[in-house]
Amino acid sequence: MDISSTTELENLLSQPTEAAIAALQQTDGDITLLGVAGKMGPTLARMALRATEASGQSRRVIGVSRFSQAGISRRLQQWGIETIAGDLLDATFVAALPVTENVIAMTGMKFGATGREGLTWAMNAHLPALLCEHYRHSRVVAFSSGNVYGLVPATGPGSAETDALQPVGEYAMSCLGRERMYQYFSETLNIPLALLRLNYATELRYGVLVDLGRQVWKGRTIDLSMGYVNVLWQGDANAMALAALADVAVPPRIINLAGPEKLSIRKVCTQFGQRMGKPVTFAGIEADSALLNNGTPAHARYGRPRVSADQMIGWIADWIQRGGQSLDKPTHFQNREGRF
């Protein structure tokens, strides 16, 4: 069954898993989502509210962001989520935020990092220090990136949480800086924390598979240099992030969020071509390395993803052919030099 509307899509993306509901049953108190107006934030906030209701509890769910894009704050409020607008790099603004027992930090900067390196480091490595000082008595789940691992052999299982980190480029290095700040404050202030290394969340309006599907639909040549990728349905990434609230630790627990399949870009685009009735052309050959994460431990803790890559490809192909909404935010996953 295909997804026919944005309303149906957002309902699906915010459907909690049993693991997410169980985690909120174990964690009392309100939840603040920082950077809530990003790609994942709205449906993650809504899932937090739905998981709370399913667990028979009552709690505030608060979303904080600049809300520079019209309509997001109003939509969150319609769902029952409180919103607070402001600049999280403003220490005075942060100090005035309500302190809640649970925090999910989605703040960060990736696209546009090249040429604005100072802002990138401020968002990714300075801001965590401000947040930890303010939420020193909270449980904190913070999003990181699989980019901190660097390129690994394409024939292998992907990077594990215990692997050495070899970030490439200033964006990835600033993500490691973010992790080190959270690590430092977790250990010095005894903040229970989890760091989520995500590669890559996908839904129907954005994500690696959307990028590839749109290229096929428009008849563009597919670059094969980054020949393999992991993707994770955003609804599953949302649910694992909520489940991690019951899995925080000092020092921070590291959790890879990634789909179970290692996808071949060539095969994915061929599937899109077949579904869309479009010829597919390729350029280059697959390198022997890629950015790949091993998400198996998280699947064991929180359950296997509910939506497979094949299901995502089918939904996305149908969505694109029907002219479904796009967020118009390319992932640039093909970049092997770490410049975003």
Features:
340 residues; 12 helices; 15% strand
Strand and helix map with partners:
Layout: H1 6-13, H2 18-26, E1 31-34, H3 41-54, E2 61-65, H4 72-79, E3 82-85, H5 91-95, E4 102-105, H6 117-134, E5 139-145, E6 152-153, H7 169-189, E7 193-198, E8 201-202, H8 208-217, E9 222-223, E10 228-229, E11 232-233, H9 234-243, E12 253-257, E13 263-264, H10 265-276, E14 282-283, E15 289-290, H11 296-302, H12 309-321
Parallel strand pairs: 1-2, 1-4, 2-3, 4-5, 5-7, 7-12, 8-11, 9-14
Antiparallel strand pairs: 6-15, 10-13
User: What is the name of the CATH architecture of the domain at 6-202 and 233-259?
Assistant: 3-Layer(aba) Sandwich
The average pLDDT score comes to 95
CATH class of the domain at 6-202 and 233-259: Alpha Beta
Structural class designation = alpha/beta
| CA radius of gyration | 19 Å
Please provide the ordered H/E string of secondary-structure elements. Answer: HHEHEHEHEHEEHEEHEEEHEEHEEHH
Shape: globular
Share of residues in helices: 25-40%
What proportion of the residues form beta strands (DSSP E)? 15-25%
- End-to-end separation in angstroms reads 36 Å
Give the beta-strand count.
15
Number of separate helices: 12
Main sheet summary = 7 strands, parallel
Examine the coordinates and then state which fold CATH places here, giving the name of the CATH topology of the domain at 6-202 and 233-259.
Rossmann fold
Identify low-pLDDT runs. Answer: none
Tell me the CATH superfamily of the domain at 6-202 and 233-259.
NAD(P)-binding Rossmann-like Domain
| Spatial sequence of strands, sheet with the most strands | 3-2-1-4-5-7-12
